Protein: histidine kinase
Amino acid sequence: MIENTFGMDIMPENEHDRLNALRRYKITGTPSEASFDGIAKLATQIFNAPIALLSLVDAESVYFKANIGMGTTKETNRGQSLCSLAILDKKVTVFEDTLKEDILLTNPNVIGDFGLRFYAGAPLITHDGFMIGSLCVIDKHPRVFTTADRQILEGLARTAMDQIELRSSSIDKIDELEGVNITMATMQQRLLELNDEMELANDELYRTNSQLNKSYDLTVLLNKNLKKSERRFRSFIDKAPIAFAILTGRELVIEVANDMMLKLWHKTEIILGKPLEQALPELQGQPYLGILDDVFTTGQNYIGDTAYARLESMGVLGDHYFDFTYEPLKNDEGETESIIVIANEVTERIKRNEHLEALNYQLEIALKAGELGSYNRDIRTGKMDCSETCKLNFGLTKNDRFDYDVLMQSIVPEHREMVYQKVQDAIQNKTTYHAEYLIRWPDGSLHWINASGLPKYDAEGNATHLIGVVADITKRKNYESQKDDFLGIASHELKTPVTGLKGTIQLLERFKDKTGSDIISRLIDQSAVNIKKIVTLVDDLLNMHRISEGQLHLEKTTFKASKILTSSCHNIISQGNHQVNITGDLDADIFADEQRLEQVLVNFVNNAVKYAPESREINITVEQLQDRIKITVKDQGEGINPAVQPFIFDRYYRANHEGKSYSGLGLGLYISAEIIKKHGGQIGVDSTVGLGSSFWFSIPLPTAEK
Structure:
């Protein structure tokens, strides 16, 4: 009775005819009658599988041998064996991971102690199309089985079937010959006893001789088929996608070496038939000839992993690395006759690894020199792989736990949302993450951290990791604070004398035409220009100090957009060097601090003149959007490098303009950004190198603001 664990019909439609075919080949009892040690060993070597099976499937049972020639025949219920599935399809049946196959989840070979996780079986197909068994490889670990692997297994199965058919035909003829011999003996006895039946015996002998002649012709044909099968097998070896060779005798004569092995050795077919020591003289002094001799004498296989060897190519010895296997082939008495060599060159992989190790070492030195800590955060789990320097920057030792939760708890509450949002923006927009934030160490002290990183994505585009570096910038922040304090005090102290000096120069301007001296007039004009620059610098310093102290106050009123646009461009228009085009909704109402907003526009326009002097046109556009109003100042200058655009609104930041010198402290855009933020708006820049820049800001409409 068949015990079926697959939940499906495992009986072929022509089961009766298939069983007759199985009996016809006289192998219904056990596969031990057809020994295929060489094919099984080759299968395990080619696929690097621990077990190869040759199975035959009758009405209720499956008879099989594992690693043929190494044990007795086993029998199992047909409904529990995966081989019964292999005879349902003429193609190779493959289960790369049996635990992912619903029909196998109740099979005792899969869920039982044996733990079968991988199966690949090619059916044994007779010349008239019946599948009587299978040749398969199995493993207790999942694995990938490629199209090339399937073709190789099919080729081995065809070779096995060819030998089965040849053996079956030979057995039939041997039986027939034995019958003929019995008949001849009987007839000879009758000739001795019955002279009167001589003529009849002669006729019978004639017929017997005729049968013998036919048997001889058939034997010749079988030998031809056997040679054809051997040629097919040799062709299969030559074209196999692995480096394969057979070394015969203790002299290690190269009997077989396929194209890949010859290429690996840097040799041609001329070395076939020569001892390995003679064919590859460069192996002298290397361990491999000794290892091969040990394999031959002990009968134990040898596996080499990334083994180093020096081989000759074009008369030059080169360094190479290989993964290889030496497998002894034994006769019926267990004596080693030959050694199978299977090899794979991994030189490029080793060189790449060495190069990566060198790069990693250089990176490690660079990180230590820069006091940078590296981290690798798993976005899905929150776990972080951090360097020792990274943990030190957060006041931790190298043995302390440090994951995403610990990181967020160390950040002061007022900075956590900012850090979280910047990380999310980098992940969603696939951009660089950059943030500066304040943390509290376990000892209670406060420190500033500068963090950067890049998200890593899987094949489906899902963010999996955030990888980057962190630095302790507490000293820099303290220096900035001290500098801000100094500049604040200095600007306050300078304000009074500068204001007095400005008034004096304005008074002098009234009398310059009465001096009667062109030199004095020019000096007064130059002084007026310079005092204007000084006033601008002092105002920037005072504004920056107010922002740092949280004392930037707004006095909001409602006014038309055209009012600040005209006033902010008056100075540039009056000079006559640039054409200012103002378009859009000029009658739009704005609810804001008019003086501060004009300060932002003046800064945008002055920057367009300063950094894009060749741009004779400056375009200003007013757009009234759904809930805000947006003003854009566009020039046609050289544009801004995308790498510096994220930092252009930072305090004291000035973009590098090679070969050019510009005045200023780099505070204008920073102050402008703080003014817009104070209004609850947004500020930004859109720029392409060679196509100019567009600086813009947007603030809520009066209805939205109120």
Remarks:
- The chain is about 45% helix and 25% strand.
- Residues 657-664 have pLDDT under 50 and may be disordered.
- The first strand starts at residue 51 and ends at 57.
